[in-house]
Design brief:
The protein is α/β, with parallel strands linked by helices. It has a nine-stranded mixed β-sheet, with helices on both faces. The protein has a four-stranded mixed β-sheet with strand order 13-14-16-15. Strands 2-1-3 form a three-stranded antiparallel β-sheet, with no helix packed on it. The protein has three domains: 38 residues; 207 residues, Rossmann fold (3-Layer(aba) Sandwich); 174 residues, Ribosomal Protein S5, domain 2 (2-Layer Sandwich).
Length: 450
């Protein structure tokens, strides 16, 4: 066996036989680090797994038995529960609550089997102190402060846990590689061996991943391809709410989100986020509009706040929080050209209250209404909601699942809904709810402010 020196980019995993100041693959500077690579001799026999081809019709297609972890919001994002042998990666900003979430979840999972929590960043005493604050008390929950992968495997073989958590993958290293923990080769090798452990022994495994300054999980992109599920824990430091979002899930939908509130005793599940996000909404305030957004199968009512004021600079400001900046610029142009509002010399600020991020085009009509309300200084009626996609011609297009949005609004006491004309077909109005169909943005705004 020979030892070969290569240089590996710590951002994207690109390998080069010589050092370079700039990675030619991801164009990042000073990211190539020296690593030792073991090269095996040619002619080494290939180890066979013993598997044979099967007919497609003979392969068992039954659903996997899922294990409920006792946290409804987490089970929802996972697709209904934890699948045996699944390999899940959870990432998020430092201090957002990744370790807190997993400790609460694994404490409840330990009620149905033994669970091993491997802490590679903190001591067992630190985790114990956090667990006492969270109320963790399961006798089947074991802690292991270890960073060497071989030692972790030895303890897993001895303890035979039903659940495994590794916090975090960037601090685990294998003695078979000479590179430092957190390097691309270490992360790739450790994750690969943990995946084999999870699949081979049917142990549901959770690993924590650090994120870069751009918000992506640190390490090679291959890491996200290796796991079954990728979860991102999002939140704003100025808000107590946290959103758990699945960006990849082999066992369920990637459209579901889980909402949590960070409290002194840990993360509390928010089963009715609409009421929470609208609790402090100012009524009869210009620029405030409520829109029903759909996150997977869950409708959530959130407040859009807009502020339009005269600009004191040559170039007006366009600032958005919680919504795509380019989308807002497009809608401002529609208001200018198709509706006739003069916004060219106005500073525009748009915010989604509560720290939520809206990505679907169904909130376009709400954005137009909030901007127009602030510009005209005329409030939208407190019991009115709007939804609909707006095109460049000013037309209002139909959106998906209008019945869920309308029912959620009616449940919270809203009495009027302005929606696309195309969504009125086969849509029954709930008791006490007036449905107003519109075909254009101009028609919608006339109905709001006449």
């Amino acid at each position: 066996m020979k030892i070969k020196t290569i240089y590996t980019c710590q951002q994207c995993g690109y390998q080069s036989p010589k050092w370079m100041g700039k990675c030619p693959d991801c164009n990042q500077w000073n990211t190539l680090a020296e690593e030792a690579l073991e090269v095996t001799a040619k002619g080494k026999p290939v180890v066979s797994s013993g598997n044979r081809p099967q007919r497609f019709s003979e392969v068992s297609g039954r659903d996997e038995d899922r294990l409920r972890c006792g946290m409804v919001e987490l089970d929802r994002v996972l697709g209904g529960g934890v699948v045996p042998g699944s390999f899940t990666l959870i990432g998020g900003d430092p201090g957002i609550g990744k370790s807190t979430l997993l400790l609460q979840a694994v404490d409840r999972l330990a009620r149905s089997g033994k669970a091993l929590y491997v802490t590679a960043e903190e001591s067992a005493r630190q985790v114990k102190m956090r667990g006492e604050r969270l109320g963790a008390s399961s006798e089947a929950l074991f802690l292991l402060a270890e960073t060497a992968l071989e030692s972790i495997f030895a303890q897993v073989k001895e303890l035979k846990p039903d659940f495994l958590v590794v916090d975090s993958i960037q601090t685990i290293f294998t003695q078979g590689l000479e590179s430092a923990p957190g390097s691309v080769s270490q992360v790739r090798e450790c994750a690969g061996r943990l995946m084999q452990l999870a699949k081979g022994q049917g142990i549901p495994t959770f690993i924590v991943g650090h994120v870069t300054k751009d918000g992506a999980i640190a390490g090679p992109r291959m890491l996200e391809h290796m796991v079954d599920t990728v979860l991102y824990f999002e939140g704003d430091a100025g808000h107590p709410y946290r959103i758990l979002r699945a960006v990849k899930n082999r066992f369920g939908s990637t459209n579901e989100i889980g909402v949590f509130e960070m409290k002194e005793s840990g993360l509390a599940e928010v089963t009715n986020p609409s009421e929470l996000f609208l609790a402090e909404r100012p009524e009869e305030a210009p620029g405030s509009v409520v829109v029903p957004s759909l996150e997977g199968s869950r409708p959530i009512l959130v407040e859009l706040q807009a502020l339009v004021s005269g600009s004191s600079y040559g170039t007006p400001r366009r600032t958005t929080m919680g919504i795509d900046h380019n989308r807002v610029s497009l809608l401002v142009a529609v208001l200018e050209k198709k509706v006739g509002l003069s916004l060219m010399a106005q500073d525009i600020f748009l915010n989604v209250a509560g720290g939520v991020r809206l990505d679907e085009p169904a909130v376009d009509l709400g954005v137009l209404a909030a901007l127009s309300s602030s510009h005209l200084n005329r409030p939208v009626q407190a019991k009115t909601i709007l939804f609909g996609e707006v095109g460049l011609a000013g037309e209002v297009r139909a959106v998906s699942r209008p019945e869920l949005r309308v029912k959620e609004a009616a449940r919270l006491g809203f009495t009027r809904c302005i929606l696309p004309q195309g969504n009125l077909k086969n849509l029954d109005a709930p008791a006490g709810m007036e449905l107003v169909g519109v075909r254009s943005a101009e028609e919608a705004l006339e109905g709001l402010f006449d």
